[in-house]
C-alpha cells in the first residue's frame, strides 16, 4: 500500500487520533500523518468532516472515514487478511461485548473526566471523578475476568478493540492526576487495571504513539483554561 | 432455532426495542417477546443489563446483549447465512458509513427531540426542534443520493442498518407533531425523507412493529409529564 493512499488527519494530544494510530501500527500500515492545527480548525478538517468537524479523519484513497471506533473497525475489516493480528474478535458475541465496552467508555468516561478537569471547586471535581472511578471499577471486573482466563489484555494475549478504546485515555488520566494532585487509577482499588495500563503502555504498537505525560500536562493546562473560559460558571 | 433460545426484553413504545424487532423480522427469526414493566424497572432488566438498566435486552441462549445497534450487528453476523437479507452492507466503506449515520442519529436526534418535547416555552421548543430539523436535512442529502442511484432505502433496494436506526423514531416524530401541533418531517423541506418514511412504514418487517401514532400520542403525553416533573425548571 503506497503511503499516500492512507492519510490520517489528527493531533498528537487527541486520544481519538491515538486509537487510529495504534490500529494502523497493529496492522503494520504506513500512512501520511497530517497534523491538524485545530486552533483554528483547518479547511481540510472542515471539508473532510463537515458533520462533526472533529479529528481524527482517515482517508483511504478517495474514501473518507470519521469517528475513531468506526475507523478502527474499517481498518480491521479491510486489512483482515494481511497477516497482522485482528483487532476485533471474530466471534459474534465477543465482538458485541467489545463494541459494548468501547461505547460504554466513550459514553461514561470522557465527559466526567473533562468536567472533573475544568471543575473549579473541590466538591464538583470530586463528584465527576467519582464517576470516572466507577468506570474504572467496571473495567477492573472485565480485565479481571480476562486475567482469570490467562489473558493479559482485554483482547486476549494481544491488544484489541477495548484495549485501544480505553488505552488511548491513559495519558490523559496520568496528566490529570499530576495537574490535580490526585490518584485516579489507584492500584489499591483497581490493581488489575493498573497492571494492564503498564503492559499497554509498553506494547510495540502503542509506544511512541500515546503522549508523554509531562508534555501532555502542559497542553492539558492550556486546554482546561480554554474550556473554563468557554464554560458558563 | 427454538423460540425459547431467543428472547427480547423490551417495550412497545421503545424505538430501540423496535430496532431489534425489525432486525429479527428481517432475519425471519422467532423469539419470545418479554414485556418490560419499566415503571418500576423489573428485576430481570436490572439483572440482565446492570450497566445501563435499559431496554432492549436480547438473549441468545445464555448470551445477553444490550444496546440496540450492537444487538442488530450481532443478529446480522450470527444469521448471515440463513438466506435472509443482510442488514449491514458487506463492503467495508459502506459499512463504516452505515455505522457513522446510525451513531450520528443517536447522538444528534434523540436528545433535542426529547428536550423539544418537554420544553415549556415556545422559544426553547423551537431551538430544540431546529436541531431535529438539521438532522432531517442531513439525512435528506443521504437518501437523495441513494434515490439518485436508484435505491429506495438507505440500505439500497431493501431496508438496512440506517433505515432501522432512523425508522424506529418515525412514530415518535408523528406523535410529537400531533402533540405539539407542528410539522417536523415536512415534505416541502425534506421530500425524499418523507417518501422514504412512507415506504419504510409499510415494509413487511416494520408493519405492526412500530407503534400506531394515536396510541403513542397518549403514551408520550404521560412520558413527557414524567420528564417535566423530573426536570429542574
Automatic annotation (TrEMBL), chains A, B:
Quick check: keyword Transferase in the entry? yes
GO CC terms, sorted = cytoplasm
User: What is the name attached to this protein's record?
Assistant: glutathione transferase
Q: Which UniProt keywords apply?
A: Detoxification, Transferase
Pfam families noted in UniProt: GST_C, GST_N
Q: What are the GO MF terms of this UniProt record?
A: glutathione transferase activity
Leader sequence residues? none
Q: For this protein, what is the EC number?
A: 2.5.1.18
- Catalysed conversion reaction: RX + glutathione = an S-substituted glutathione + a halide anion + H(+)
The lineage's top-level taxon is Eukaryota
Domain spans labelled GST N-terminal:
4-83
The record's comment on protein family reads: Belongs to the GST superfamily. Tau family.
GO BP, one example?
toxin catabolic process
Species, as recorded: Vicia faba
> GST C-terminal domain: from which residue to which, for each copy?
91-223
